[in-house]
Amino acid sequence: MNFPILSSLILLPSVGAIFILLSKSKDQTNYQSSKYVALFVSFSNFFISLYLWYIFDPNITDFQFVENRSWLPGFINYKVGIDGISILFIVLSTLITPLCIISVNKTITTKLKEFLIAILIMESLMIGVFCSLDLVIFYLFFEGGLIPMFLIIGIWGGARRVYSAFKFFLFTLLGSVLMLIAIISIYWINGTTDIVELYNLGIGENYQNLLWLAFFSSFAVKTPMWPFHTWLPDAHVEAPTAGSVLLAAILLKMAGYGFIRFSIGLFPIASENFVPLIYVLSLVAIVYTSLVALMQEDMKKLIAYSSVAHMGYVTLGIFTVTQQSLEGGIVQMISHGLVSAALFLCVGVVYDRMHSRLIKTYGGLASIMPKYAVFFMVFTLAAVGLPGTSGFVGEFLILMGVFKKSFLVATIASLGVILAVAYMLWLYKRVIFGELINKDLVKMLDLNKSEIFILMCLAIPTLFFGFYPEPLLNTIEASISNLIDTYNYKLSLTK
Questions:
Q1: Cβ atoms < 10 Å from Cβ of 298
Q2: Residue 338 lies in a domain
Q3: Which segments of 237-330 are extended strands (E)?
Q4: Exposed e or buried b for every residue in 240-270, given b needs 16+ CB within 10 A?
Q5: Residue 354's pLDDT is what?
Q6: Which helix (H) or strand (E) is 286 found in, with range?
Q7: DSSP assignment, residue 368?
Q8: Any residues with CB less than 8 A from the CB of 373 and at least 6 apart, and which?
Q9: φ and ψ at 322, to 5 degrees?
Q10: Cα–Cα distance between 266 and 490 in angstroms, integer?
Q11: Closest by alpha carbon to 394, among 308, 459, 323, 336?
């Protein structure tokens, strides 16, 4: 294909952001026109990504639609391309972005134009992460995403927004300094930062452990793995609804993608050496943060801690390195992207009406907001992995793969399923069922048309992929199989 479709996907949101920046928006009507421009650009990108998925050949294991241009001659090339793993995250990113823009309502009362610009630039950077085939380009996109998210939390967040924004920024930035040093070291060792060339050349066994730890320092913070997760609840609580959605649905997945692409792909020997460490951290994340979630009185904090637990399953599946566990890890990330986005949007719906995230504020909403109760139920059940939802497919595949490697690890991880049922259903019971004790709730209105549209866009794929996950599995099967074969081959050379 001669048309640079990947560069178009990356650049289109930024072009839309520049257009909004240059437009004259002083009154509310013009602000709304900026929102329409942002919606047009983001939906256009979504349909382009769907077309990309349609023409993508899942049977080819090599990277497709590769674009390679010299940027810094002799050092760095602008190189992008996709495989079966990348394409799903690109489609997820382009789906979530327009839904975030639609959700922007009266809660963003100041600097709406700037808020939309931040979201569109964020989309460009997120797509760039999943397309990058050069370590330096990946790093620039990966770390560039910190800036708009820092601004989204710090400017449009809650009362403690500045503290939370700086905590988010410092945690993630400090973790990535070591990754930058590792990228420079890889260039010094191999003379290239081209990811495809590095796959073919391999990284020397003597260097792998240190380089793996350097990349791990960045990905573990952004996943976030226990005990590097403490920034996440604060960031979620203070971020506006759209910021929480982007953070949970896409930003956390960038680190999981990094584990697959680099930790498993470039450092197979080190990955095998550090499997016990990953298992311990993942199991603690699954069990401990699930128990912490049970104690939360803030809905956003509860969902934030549940995200840490669900991403614990992802890291468990990735580093088990079997066909089932890796496929399960990717499906779990896609599912979590849909479900966590929907749950934060559900919290945003009631927060916009009552300006409270505390669970005790609510109760008995089923009688006055039946549509809301139905959607909230769908996503609650998806979060606990009910069969027939996408959450079940990912968790089931992960646990099947882990059972083949370690019965004990899989058994402990299964406790997380029980705990998830406990904290999510308890949340649902306290918010939706019971008596309408708080009389102020009577004036709350049920979902409006835009809220129904947003939640429907997330509910349909959640249920569809729960009953029919074949489109996801067929897309990633060949790429995962090739990754595992290469992984096992490189391990065999050391024996």
A1: 16
A2: yes
A3: none
A4: bbbbbbbbbbbbbbbbbbbbbbbbbbbbbbb
A5: 84
A6: helix 275-294
A7: T
A8: 365, 366, 432
A9: -120, 165
A10: 10
A11: 336
Nearest Cα neighbor of 100 from 129, 130, 121 is 121
How many other CB atoms sit within 10 Å of the CB of residue 106?
6
SS3 content of the chain, % helix, strand, coil (to 5): 80, 5, 20
- Which carries the bigger pLDDT value, residue 144 or residue 72? 144
Residues 6+ apart with CB under 8 A from 125: 141, 144, 145, 148
Which residue, among 204, 179, 175, 178, has the nearest Cα to 191 in the 3D structure?
204
Structure tokens at 261: 């692409």
300 found inside a domain: yes
The structure tokens 């793969």 sit at: 401
pLDDT at 30: 56
Rounded Cα distance between 376 and 378, Å, is 6
Q: Exposed, middle or buried by CB within 10 Å (0-12, 13-18, 19+), for 84?
A: buried
One-letter amino acid identity for 74? G
Q: How confident is the model at residue 12 (pLDDT cuts 50, 70, 90)?
A: very high
Backbone angles phi, psi at 404, to 5 degrees: -70, -30
pLDDT digits (tens, 9 = 90+) for 24-53: 655 555 567 888 888 999 999 999 999 999
Q: What is the pLDDT of residues 190-236, one digit of tens each?
A: 888 888 888 888 787 788 889 999 899 888 888 888 887 777 777 87
**Confidence class for position 462, pLDDT limits 50, 70, 90:** very high
pTM score: 0.91
Structurally, the chain folds into a number of domains equal to: 1
Query: Helix, strand or coil for residue 67?
Result: strand
Q: Which domain holds residue 346?
A: 274-495
The token pair at 131 is: 């397309």
In single-letter form, the type of residue at position 80 comes to V
Cβ proximity of 13 and 41 under 8 Å: yes
Mean pLDDT computed over 434-449: 82
Cβ atoms of 335 and 393 closer than 8 Å? yes
Asked if residue 307 belongs to a domain, the reply is yes
What percent of the chain is predicted at pLDDT more than 70?
A: 97
Tokens of 239: 């971020």
β-bridge partners, 76: 72
Q: Can you tell me whether residue 97 is helix, strand or coil?
A: helix
Residue 394 domain-assigned (yes or no): yes
What is the average pLDDT value for the chain, to the nearest integer? Answer: 87
Neighbours of 289 (CB within 10 A): 27
Distance of CA 18 to the CA centre of its chain: 25
Q: How far is CA 103 from CA 99, 108, 301, in A?
A: 6, 10, 20
Measured CA to CA in angstroms, residue 428 lies from 20, 373, 442, 459, 474 at distances of 40, 9, 18, 17, 34
Among 96-105, 162-171, 319-328, 457-466, whose mean pLDDT is lowest? 162-171
